[in-house]
Write a structure and sequence with these properties.
This protein is an alpha+beta fold. The protein is built from 17 helices and 19 strands. The termini are far apart. It binds flavin-adenine dinucleotide.
Amino acid sequence: MSAATASESFDVIVVGAGPAGSTAALLCARAGLQVLLLERGEYPGAKNVSGAAFYGSAILNELIPNWWEQAPVERYICRRDIAFMSPTTSVALDFHCAGEGYTTPPYNGFIVLRPRFDRWLAAQAEAAGAFLLTSTVVDDVLRENGRVVGVRVRREQGDIRGKVVIACDGVNSFLAKKVGLQREFHAHELSLGVKEVLGLDPTIIEDRFRLSGDEGIAYEYLGAITEDVHGGAFLYTNRDSLSLGVIGQVSSLVERRKRPYELLERFKAHPAVAPLVRGAKLREYSAHLIPESGWSMKPTLYTDGMLVAGDAAGFCLAAGLYLEGMNYAMQSGLAAAETAIEACRRDRFSARALSGYRKHLKRRNVSTDFRAYRHAPAFVNSARLQNLYPEVVASGMEQLFRVDGKAKRKILPLARQMMRQYQLKPGDMLRDGYQVVRAYLW
Ligand SMILES: Cc1cc2nc3c(=O)[nH]c(=O)nc-3n(C[C@H](O)[C@H](O)[C@H](O)COP(=O)(O)OP(=O)(O)OC[C@H]3O[C@@H](n4cnc5c(N)ncnc54)[C@H](O)[C@@H]3O)c2cc1C
C-alpha cells in the first residue's frame, strides 16, 4: 500500500467492488467525499458470479445516462422463457416483448458478464474520484469507543481510517458478522450456483435462438433437471457465448449427496437443452453462494460508523419468478451512499445518525419489495414447487399430447391419475395454493 493511502483518512470506506460497492462509491465520490473502494480480487469482478441477467438498467441510467452505450453489455433481454421439466419433456412459458422499454432505451434488462461489467462499473467510481485499491483483503474493522472508525487490511501498515464504512462484501459478509450485525446462515438459507460460459459463434446463437441484432433471451428451468435437489437452472445468450448454470439449495445438496457439477452435466444433456449448447466450447467455470431467504436474513443494517448493503444485507430477491440481486445491490448501495453523504454533511456518525438508511431503502423500493415478497423464498424453496409440480406439469402435457390410437382422456381424469402417480395429496395442494396467494397475489 502506498504511504499516502495508509496515512490518509477517508470520509467513506467501501468494502467490496461488486455492484453494491461500486455504485455506493460512485455516488459518494460525486458528492465530493474522499472515498476508498477496497476489493480483494485482482480486479473488480475477478471473483464475482451471476447469471447474469441484469435488471437494473433504469437505476443505472439515472447515474450514467445511456450507460449501455459505453458499458460492456452482451445483449438486451426481450424474451424470457420459463420451462418446467421432466427427465424427457419440457413445457415452456415463452414471454416475448417488443414493446417500449424492452427493445428500446432504457431497456428492461441486459445480459452481462460480471468480470467485464464489474470492472467497468468500478472504473466509473474511479472516474468520479473514488480511490480503488485491488488485491486488498479487509480483515477487520477498527473501533474506538464502540464506533467503527475504519478497517484493517491484510497489508503492512494496514489500518485505514474512515468516517463511515459501507460493507458491500457479499453474501458471506465477514464485516457484518465481525461487528455483530449479521448472524451465521443456515444451509437452507443459501444456494450454491455453478456456472459455465460456453463460447459459440454469434451467427449460430442468432439462428438457434431466433434472435436478431442485439436481442437476447433468458431461459429459466425448474423440475427434473436438479433431480430431487431444491433448485433450478438458467441459460442466457451472450454476444458470442452462452452462460448457463445450476442452482441448488445447500442443505438439499448435502442431504441428497449431490454434486453441483454433476447436476450441471445432466442439465446440459437434457434433450431440451443439449441442442441449444451443441458445439459450444467451455471458456469459464465458476461457483458462488446466493443468499436466498430474502427478508428473513436481513441483518441489523447499521451501527455506529457502519452500514451494510447488497448481498451482505441479504438483498437478493430469489422468489421463483425473480432472481434479482444485482439491481437490489445497486439500489441498496445507493441508499447507503445517500445515508453516508448526509452523515458527512452533518458530521454525525452514530447509529442514530445513520438510521436514515431505512428511509432511503424504502424510497428506493428495496425494503418495500423484500417485505412484499417475504413469504416467497420459503415457498419457492419447497420440494413440491421446485421439483414436483414442474415435473407433474411436464409429464401431464406429455400424456395430453400423446396420440397412440387409444381413447383420448379428458383433463380431469388425467389430473387425477397424475395425482395418484406422483402421490400428490389434495391437502398439500390446497396449502400450496394458499402459499401462492400469500407469496405473490397480495
Ligand atoms: C450462479 C448465480 C447466478 C446469479 N444470477 C443472477 C442474475 O441473473 N441476476 C441478478 O440480478 N443476480 C444474480 N445473482 C445474484 C447476484 O450475483 C448478487 O446478488 C450480486 O452479485 C450482489 O452484489 P454485491 O455487490 O452485493 O456482492 P458481490 O457481487 O458478491 O460483490 C462483493 C465484492 O466484495 C469483495 N469482497 C468480499 N470480501 C472482501 C473482503 N474481506 N475484502 C475486500 N473485498 C471483499 C468480493 O471480491 C466482491 O467483489 C446470481 C448469483 C449467482 C451465484
